[in-house]
Write a structure and sequence with these properties.
- The complex is a heterodimer of chains A (258) and B (278).
- Chain A contains 10 helices and 11 strands.
- Chain A is of the alpha/beta class.
- Chain A has a domain of 137 residues: Rossmann fold (3-Layer(aba) Sandwich), CATH 3.40.50.
- In chain A, the strands form 2 sheets. A 7-stranded mixed beta sheet of chain A has the order 1-11-10-4-9-8-7, sandwiched between helices. In chain A, strands 3-2-5-6 form a 4-stranded antiparallel beta sheet, with helices on one face.
- In chain A, helix 7 links the parallel strand 8 and strand 9.
- Chain A is globular and about 55 Å long.
- In chain A, 41% of the residues are buried.
- Chain B has one domain.
- In chain B, helix 3 packs parallel to helix 6.
- Chain B starts with 5 loop residues before the first helix and ends with a helix.
- Chain B is mostly helical.
- Classes of the chains: A alpha/beta (258), B mainly alpha (278).
Chain lengths: 258, 278
């Protein structure tokens, strides 16, 4: 296997930027299977970082370790200056309020309407908002994803692309500082995938968020990422700009950039 | 033809048998280990639920919604089963009592058996099927579709929001359903008594309640609270700890019904023993 290739170019560009996520020597296993082996990566303020990798390379486990849905076995995860692994439940809850998470399946609450889905995190995270302000924020989030007319629909009445958009609206409605995207375009047709990618860019520009995008969809990575990291067998295989990946002659990288 | 040394042959067979026995022993130990782990996990889940019940920020709105789902939405099923239970009991018992010339004891006998045993146990078993499986399937599917994770990352404690509210709603609603079922069972008994006889409602009530004492009602109500808690806890535990695949939703719903029905019977046995001692 190739060694970790961090280019001097990328390092110089990112050195002066503020880190919002700093992961060092992260290891995570389930039983005897080691999924993440010594992963280190940084996400900088205002950056869109795409993490590429084949299915089973540990991408989703990595993103779930960041919000401590999984407890890491070893290593440190600093998010907005706080060590996630050392936080108690209360502090972790406070930190999670600043992080948006778009799940692979959308994870909309089936028993709630679209409005209630957006209202649910809003009422818990922004407790001081009045009903009028809540309504305004919900309408604004739905307008941003182009689905204002779905307010009273149930998730079962929405298509796959619409569910992803509503899920994205639910993520941005609480004004997160960081957004973690877990396979945002999986299961969508190419046209809808492109729409979601554009939406990710729009949201980054409008809300000035930093985003970590887990994907195996190279088009999504091309459209959204400022920087790419490739995970392979639980390790960082390559870290660099899109152009460096596209020029690479490495077989594994080429298999993604055909 | 090559002759095999019989000693070596016996040794080989013995070795093979020994390996087979070892494999069986390992499999049995693993089964026992899984069972014990499951029991330990259930008690950990129970202690976490108790801890979250008495912590801050009770989800009152969700508790009311669950109480409505468990209580009000179960009324049609409980009404039909309660009424039929009383009716059938009367139709079955009447010939024997007529044979002994004790037909006037029929309302009292049915009332005592309904209120002390049949009402609480049958209602709890029906609720184990309806409510337990519903909770197992709902929470299981929420787990599979990452809705529980979504709740957790949006700073909501899913144990408090999903589990505590459901367990408390089941604990409080099942005694109400039991009392409602008892009342309809007695009405069914009156209808049954009037199929082959003529008993006024007032006379029926006076005959039924003359055989009932406070001590008949209280243990039944108290054990109904435990039935509710068991159904809620098992349903939530099975759903909350479901695996990641879609088939685990079915497994969670099914095992919630089986285990909660079994535990209802065991709790009933313990309750009867305690009542007997008093």
């Amino acid at each position: 296997m190739n060694p970790i290739q961090t280019t001097a170019n990328t390092a110089a560009k990112t050195k002066s930027l503020e880190q919002v996520i700093d992961i060092n020597n992260l290891r995570k296993g389930f039983g005897t299977q080691e999924v993440l082996k010594n992963v280190s990566l940084q996400l900088f303020k205002g950056e869109n970082l795409a993490v590429l990798g084949k299915s089973g390379s540990g991408k989703s486990v990595l993103i779930k370790c960041i919000v401590r849905l999984f407890n890491p076995d070893h290593g440190t995860i600093n998010v907005l200056g706080e060590d996630v692994t050392a936080l108690n439940n209360e502090s972790l809850g406070e930190l999670r309020k600043k992080i948006g998470f778009l799940f692979q399946s959308g994870a909309l609450y089936d028993s709630m309407t679209v409005r209630q889905n957006l209202e649910f995190p809003l009422r818990r995270i922004k407790k001081d908002l009045s009903q009028k302000e809540i309504n305004e924020k919900i309408n604004e989030a739905l307008e941003n994803v182009g689905l204002s007319d779905t307010l009273n629909k149930m998730p079962s009445q929405l298509s796959g692309g619409m569910r992803k958009r509503i899920s994205l609206a639910r993520t941005i409605v609480v004004d997160p500082i960081i957004i973690l995207y877990d396979e945002p375009t999986t299961g969508l047709d190419p046209a809808t995938s492109d729409e979601i990618s554009l939406l990710i860019n729009d949201i980054q520009k409008k809300y000035k968020t930093s985003s970590l995008i887990i994907t195996h969809d190279i088009e999504c990575a091309r459209n959204t990422a400022d920087r790419l990291i490739m995970l392979h067998e639980g390790e960082v295989y390559k870290n660099g700009q899109l152009a460096e990946f596209e020029k690479s002659s490495d077989t594994l990288i080429r298999s993604f950039f055909k | 033809m090559k002759k095999i040394n019989p000693v070596i042959k016996v040794k080989t067979i013995a070795k093979e048998q020994s390996i087979k026995l070892s494999e069986k022993a390992i499999a049995k130990t693993a089964e026992a280990h899984n069972f014990l782990t499951d029991v330990a996990d259930f008690f950990l889940f129970l202690s976490r639920t108790c801890k979250e019940t008495f912590s801050r920020d009770f989800e009152f709105k969700e508790f009311l919604r669950q109480s409505f789902q468990i209580g009000y939405k179960s009324l049609p099923l409980i009404s039909v089963t309660g009424f039929i239970m009383g009716l059938v009991l009367t139709i079955q018992a009447r010939p024997s009592l007529v044979h002994f010339g004790a037909v006037s004891l029929l309302p009292g006998m049915v009332a005592v058996s309904l209120i002390r045993e049949m009402g609480p146990v049958i209602t709890a078993l029906i609720c184990a099927g309806k409510i337990g499986s519903g909770m197992g399937a709902e929470l299981g599917s929420m787990k599979v579709t990452e809705q529980i994770d979504a709740m957790e990352v949006s700073s909501t404690n899913p144990m408090k929001f999903l589990v505590v509210t459901r367990v408390l709603a089941a604990t409080l609603m099942i005694p109400v359903l039991v009392l409602y079922s008892d009342a309809l069972g007695l009405f069914g008994c009156w209808v049954g008594a009037n199929i082959k006889g003529d008993v006024s409602f007032v006379l029926f009530c006076s005959q039924a309640f003359s055989h009932l004492e406070f001590i008949d009602l209280m243990p039944a109500v108290i054990k109904s609270f435990f039935f509710g808690a068991v159904i809620g806890l098992v349903g939530c535990y099975k759903g909350y700890t479901a695996g990641r695949g879609t088939e685990s939703v079915g497994i969670a719903a099914n095992s919630a019904v089986v285990l909660s029905s079994l535990l209802v019977i065991i709790v009933d046995l313990i309750a009867v023993q305690i009542t007997d001692l008093l």
